[in-house]
Amino acid sequence: MKIERLIEKLENEFEDLEKGLLNPNFNFREIEDWSSMHALVIIALIDSEYDVLLNGGDLKGAETVQDLFDMIQKKLS
Q1: pLDDT tens profile 17-71
Q2: From CA 43, how far away is CA 20, in angstroms rounded?
Q3: Which residue, 46, 4, 47, 44, is CA-closest to 26?
Q4: Is there a contact between 32 and 15 (Cβ–Cβ < 8 Å)?
Q5: Buried b / exposed e across 47-69, counting CB within 10 Å, b at 16+?
Q6: Distance between CA 26 and CA 65 in Å, rounded?
Q7: At what angle do helices 36-50 and 3-13 cross, to 10 degrees?
Q8: What is the Cα–Cα distance from 66 to 1, expressed in whole angstroms?
Q9: Sequence spans of domains, the chain
Q10: CB of 72 closer than 8 Å to CB of 50
Q11: C-alpha separations of 32 from 29, 35, 38 in Å
């Protein structure tokens, strides 16, 4: 699994985001108009793409795309 693939998936989910804006150090909570709906989209994306179930607490503990990626990898191992 590569972080670039996760970034691509996130960019596809958040159509409002300019392509190429996301990177491993990007704080996804800084997405304009961030809301709990965005969090649910991320949780659903990770579940459907990686078969990894995150909960609100998991997401609360992550700030960057790299944090999400590391969390997915940890749950996969």
Answers
A1: 888 889 999 998 888 888 888 899 999 999 999 999 999 899 999 999 999 999 9
A2: 21
A3: 4
A4: no
A5: eeebebebeeebbeebebbebbb
A6: 6
A7: 130
A8: 13
A9: 3-76
A10: yes
A11: 8, 9, 10
DSSP class of residue 19 equals T
pLDDT digits (tens, 9 = 90+) for 40-52: 999 999 999 999 9
Q: Which two tokens stand for residue 29?
A: 């909570």
Residue 33 belongs to what H/E stretch? none
Backbone phi and psi for residue 29, each to the nearest 5 degrees, phi listed first: -75, -10
> Does 1.10.1200.10 match the CATH number of domain 3-76?
yes
pTM: 0.88
What is residue 58's three-state secondary structure? Answer: helix
Q: What's the N-to-C CA distance of the chain in angstroms?
A: 12
